[in-house]
Amino acid sequence: MNRRIVSGPAPISAGVVGLGYWGPNLLRGLLELPEVEVRHICDLDEERLAAFSRRYPRATPTTCYDTLLADPELDAIIIATPVYTHFELASAALRAGKHTFVEKPLACSTAQAQELIELARAHDVRLMCGQTFLYSPPVREVKRLVDTHELGDIFFISSSRVNLGLHQRDVSVVWDLAPHDFSILLYWLEEMPESVAAAGRASIMRGIHDVAFISLQFPSGVLANVELSWLAPSKLRRTAIVGSNKMVLYEDGTAEPVRVFDRGVVYQDPETFGEYQLSYRSGDILSPRIAATEPLVAELAEFAQLIRTRKESPNLEIARQIVTLVEAAHESLDRGGVPVAVADHSRVADLTAA
Ligand SMILES: NC(=O)c1ccc[n+]([C@@H]2O[C@H](COP(=O)([O-])OP(=O)(O)OC[C@H]3O[C@@H](n4cnc5c(N)ncnc54)[C@H](O)[C@@H]3O)[C@@H](O)[C@H]2O)c1
Fold first, then answer.
1. Contact 90 CB / ligand 1 (< 6 Å)
2. Is the bond into 177 cis (omega within 30 degrees of 0)?
3. Most buried residue, 14, 91, 218, 306, by CB count within 10 Å?
């Protein structure tokens, strides 16, 4: 009997660097992908490395990042280390010809983010930034509601991302949490804000802001407010999108993460009616069915797909814009909360010239 031998492409061999809070989630996500084989795990902390090595015996543990760079059999490197290390580790990976996935934010400055993008192009390897929320089914459902104009014109968006912890020692709450909200806003609205104002406070550790209230003004007129904090009585991940036709509440991690409110206010011009006419509309509340796919696995699957198809990540532009917005927010924090014009921002001028 003839047996047909089915053979697909060899799996992509990957190394995961940084096994702190988030790296293990990426490791778990990679192990769900049959097209990826985890060949190395790397962390400077030997105890942590030993613990994960027991759990994942097929991956070779190392404290030496250069071992990954020098391995000719290694296709890709996944970086989940602190923000200040991203540029150094990612640029070394790209120069070594490795496809590179870097956790958010891509780098500590727009110039560094731009350099990474150019390095990836020069070495013809894929670069992707971990912006998990762009793969979240509720975020995608809201995008559909915005794009189909079901909400009408968007007036404003108000978001809270607060919890007690995890205090970071090296970066502010803005570097830590704003990339999530900025990625979602840029994805939904497809425009860069023209100005950013941020007020905040370093309540616990000197010099590290742990609460920030950020306002973003978009050229279309949309106003967004983002509240971020590591100091809050309870965890909240809530965004309200208020449009001229309908309003939406997106609450991550709840049983009904997207609720569409057929509510609004109708205003009639006093010139026509002699006096102000306001009527409030309060219709149905709809909770659309949301797919149960895990964003983290979807994002890593896209990275594998980009490697296979040799395509540039569609989210690189957003990754760079996020860094620019965090820089602008910090500039505003340093200047007592004054609005910083993003178009006048020198680092943004570089960005638009690119
Ligand atoms: N996408 C998300 O939802 C999400 C959530 C949390 C964190 N993150 C991102 O993940 C990254 C890591 O955050 P974290 O909270 O896990 O940090 P962490 O401090 O808990 O862990 C970082 C790990 O990296 C290791 N490390 C540092 N420098 C290293 C080096 N040069 N070589 C090898 N290992 C090194 C440390 O020993 C530590 O174990 C950050 O970029 C953060 O923004 C993303």
1. no
2. no
3. 14
